Amino acid sequence: MDLVPALREPLKKVLGPATAKVMAEHLGLDTVGDLLHHYPRRYEERGQLTHLADLPMDEHVTVVAQVADARLHSFASARAPRGKGQRLEVTITDGSGRLQLVFFGNGVHKPHKELLPGTRAMFAGKVSLFNRRLQLAHPAYELLRASADDEEGAEAVESWAGALIPLYPATAKLESWKIAKAVQTVLPSAQEALDPLPESLREGRGLVPLPEALLKIHRPHTKADIADARARLKWDEAFVLQVALARRRHAETQVPAIPRSPLPDGLLTAFDARLPFTLTEGQQRVSREIFTDLATDHPMHRLLQGEVGSGKTLVALRAMLAVVDAGGQAAMLAPTEVLAQQHHRSVTEMMGELAEGGMLGGAEHATKVVLLTGSMGTAARRRALLDLATGEAGLVIGTHALIEDKVQFHDLGLVVVDEQHRFGVEQRDALRGKGKQPPHLLVMTATPIPRTVAMTVFGDLETSVLDQLPAGRSPIASHVVPAADKPHFLARAWERVREEVENGHQAYVVCPRIGDDEDATKKSAEDDAEKRPPLAVLDVADHLAKGPLQGLRVEVLHGRMHPDDKDAVMRRFAAGETDVLVATTVIEVGVNVPNATAMVIMDADRFGVSQLHQLRGRVGRGSAAGLCLLITEMPEASPARGRLDAVAATLDGFELSRVDLEQRREGDVLGQAQSGARTSLRVLAVIEDEDIIAEAREEATAVVAADPELAALPALRTALDALLDEEREQYLEKG
Fold first, then answer.
1. How far apart are the C-alpha atoms of 216 and 214, rounded to whole Å?
2. Cα→Cα distances 405→152, 300, 390, 726, Å
3. Which of 160, 168, 491, 576 is 20 to 30 Å from the Cα of 19, by its Cα?
4. What is the DSSP letter of 584?
5. In what order do the strands lie in the sheet with 596-601?
């Protein structure tokens, strides 16, 4: 069924080509329906002004304020040597603060006539700093005046004074009030919006119809109107997305797969007998969940979340061995060569002679474990490819080199994806396509995900959580080191590193960039304030080796090194031949050196919360306590410092993932679910609206179970088609 024609109408027909072009290029809005779903970010009351005191630097803002003062100055310049240059300075106020507007040259005439003291207007522009004062240069403005002489008379004045002004997400090219005028033009089409919610659901939950919700969100008369509209639109977003995911889960149960159960006395039993420790309760429980899935005749789709160091790799390896037992092959996809090599080393060490299949001295149930990365030599690569094609190798660990067309498997039964967020869906899909029938899929992440995000982003996967650390793991003490306020704290940090090394341990120092001729990363507003690029590995390593850590064995590791060199550095560090490794985040995931007890993170404010948590997980992996020092020059009251204090205060990754999500826009988190397209969540807040998402999931599952094709719900089908444009449809198809 086609979408409602009125809502499918291209904006260029309704608004004209120039406005439509800006809307398409800068806001991703192409149709009348797109514009109706571009909701106001907030509302201004005529009698109440925004806080000029809180304006953010370098951002495009819209403010409502009153002109306090306007002065025209003449000045001499290269262009106007005789003092004929003109500058108009207008001061506006909102009771909380004052802001200066400046206009130059020919641009002064219109505002000089219109912006008289006492005039109220909306102003939009980019906030900049001049002579230590905030200002807007050449802002666009829209006068807010209504007089009793207007044709509509006093009534207009009254409705004007009481109305709520919608402020829309805008761009420098298209101010909020121009968007508001465009919305006014298309608003009558809202009456034709098809309601995707089943009537019983809408009435049962007391939600207003969709056309009414669209009118109320764009043109509310009261705050209650806004609340009604938002409650309704949140349900739409949650429900339609959950229906898409529920249909995906339902479709999975219809796809055939080969059940893979381990032999009673096979490779898995032999491996378990070799383990020098017992599995934690969590590992046993999650293994049972995975083995149950593997034994079914449709593909497993499971997300394994686990705290850093909770033993996910061991759980995944046991699943892989179960599949090899059942006559299949298993592949593990790692995001970097360093990590693929690390996994290969630790798997072959854990398996011992069980990894020597086909070799002299190999155990009875042994298999072969091969590594496949892009930088391998031709001979080694050819051998690995042959082992996979013949089935000689039961296990393969590799980077995205595994996905290339040349790679053929004898019988691929399980794909394990490590650090899911590093892989595109297409890469996962390409690897799954190498099975004769769809292989089972286990996705692992050490970035804990709040329950609602898991339900939204990974809603088509069943979730297992490993939340207890294996015995023998040590706690990690974390501290924020304010290098600018207290330079002696930084000196003490290097002394602590020396003490760890003197006690026979090793340390990491992490920097945001490599250095050398590399471009400094893009500056943020906070960077501008401090006017220095992020610290670089090469500079810091040089400074430490000649200064605070002189005499210690310092090496560097970063992504631009040759893979063989990277591997050699990691081997030396793992063997204890290096005291301090100065690295980029290439060590963030999976690197396991139990003797490394200290980590110093330079410019820690430039890393995200989950990334800091990941990095910190590289220490405290042995019996000695771990230490993580977060070095920053950010002032105490800044949001960046707040983030670091949160990381230092808890080792609970799930708690930190909430902090992270609350500080970022939802779209960042859901970007992967929406395959990088504009996020479909405009009013739904993943953390706040946990109840709505959970309820929507239940309702969606029931609806899809009763009517998988949604034959009885054509309007819901239409909404799904709008949500799942081709790109997103492929995303869900590929899972």
1. 5
2. 71, 24, 16, 25
3. 160
4. -
5. 476-482, 626-632, 596-601, 506-510, 580-583, 554-557
Hey, what amino acid is at 236?
Answer: D
Contacts of 527 (CB under 8 A, 6+ apart): 533, 534
Q: At what angle do helices 337-351 and 563-574 cross, to 10 degrees?
A: 50
Give the span between the Cα atoms of 24 and 12, in whole angstroms. 10
d(CA 445, CA 464): 11
pLDDT digits (tens, 9 = 90+) for 652-683: 777 777 777 666 544 444 444 333 333 456 77
pLDDT in tens, 299-342: 898 888 877 667 888 999 999 999 999 999 999 988 888 888 88
CA distance 46 to 163: 7
The secondary structure of 139-173, three-state, reads CEEEECCCCCCCCCCHHHHHHHHHCEEEECCCECC
Q: How many CB atoms lie within 10 A of CB 227?
A: 12
Q: Which of 563, 565, 543 is nearest to 554 (CA)?
A: 543
Q: What contacts 24+ positions apart, CB below 8 Å, involve 404-411?
A: 407/372, 407/434, 408/434, 409/329, 409/331, 409/434, 409/435, 410/329, 411/327, 411/328, 411/329, 411/435, 411/436
626 in Cβ contact with 475 (< 8 Å): yes
Q: Is 209 exposed, middle or buried (0-12, 13-18, 19+ CB in 10 A)?
A: middle
CA distances (Å), origin 716, targets 196, 389, 679, 719: 4, 46, 19, 5
Alpha helices in 304-411 (DSSP H): 312-325, 337-351, 378-390
